[in-house]
């Protein structure tokens, strides 16, 4: 996959001396670079803005993106009704792709990204109170279904 920025006036985006470019060559899939994530998109845009600011500071720039995945991006631990169980479970949470120290997905021996389960973060009520989403340790769990 190739990600780049192009200008009607200057062509492919690079520094005036040609030493810096925003082009990203990305090998998608198992055993390759993984997937072009929202973090990659943000880094790519930041690099483009850096080159524009340093090399073309007196011009106005508009960056246009067509990355459908960015329309639904949210933090991994954000409250999600779709991922909440109707009845209490000891192990419920959000399944995410595990990342290594380098920020890239960890790939298992089967060639697939390794998943791990994390808890959703607590939410905040309109009055500012914190609303935990998980029972504290040792709590007697009562089913939502039986209390209605």
Q: Can you offer a commentary on this structure?
A:
- With 148 residues, this protein is an alpha+beta fold.
- 15% of the residues lie in helices and 14% in strands.
- It is built from two helices and eight strands; from the N terminus they run E-E-E-E-H-E-E-E-E-H.
- The strands form four sheets. A two-stranded antiparallel sheet has the order 1-4. A two-stranded antiparallel ribbon has the order 2-3. A two-stranded antiparallel ribbon has the order 5-6.
- The chain starts with a strand and ends with a helix.
The whole-number mean of residue pLDDT values reads 82
- Largest β-sheet summary: 2 strands, antiparallel
User: Level of helix content?
Assistant: 10-25%
Low-pLDDT residue spans:
none
Strand order of the largest sheet: 1-4
What is the H/E string? EEEEHEEEEH
CA-based shape: elongated
In short:
With 148 residues, the protein is of the alpha+beta class. It contains 2 helices and 8 strands; from the N terminus they run ββββαββββα.
Q: How are the SSEs placed, and which strands pair?
A:
Blueprint: E1 2-3, E2 6-7, E3 11-12, E4 24-25, H1 38-55, E5 94-97, E6 115-118, E7 123-124, E8 130-131, H2 144-147
Antiparallel strand pairs: 1-4, 2-3, 5-6, 7-8
Describe the structure using short key phrases.
alpha+beta; two-stranded antiparallel ribbon; elongated
């Amino acid at each position: 996959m190739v990600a780049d920025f192009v200008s009607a006036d200057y062509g492919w985006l690079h520094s005036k001396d040609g030493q810096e470019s925003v082009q990203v060559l990305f090998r998608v899939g198992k055993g390759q670079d993984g997937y072009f994530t929202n973090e990659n998109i943000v880094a790519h845009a930041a690099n483009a803005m850096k080159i524009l600011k340093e090399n073309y500071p007196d011009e106005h720039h508009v960056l246009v993106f067509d990355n459908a995945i960015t329309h639904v991006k949210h933090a991994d631990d954000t409250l999600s009704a779709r991922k909440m169980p109707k009845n209490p479970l000891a192990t419920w949470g959000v399944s995410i792709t595990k990342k290594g120290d380098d920020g890239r997905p960890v790939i298992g021996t089967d060639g697939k990204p390794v998943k791990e389960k994390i808890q959703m973060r607590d939410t905040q009520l309109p009055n500012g109170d914190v609303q935990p989403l998980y029972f504290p340790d040792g709590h007697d769990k009562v089913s939502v279904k039986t209390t209605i």
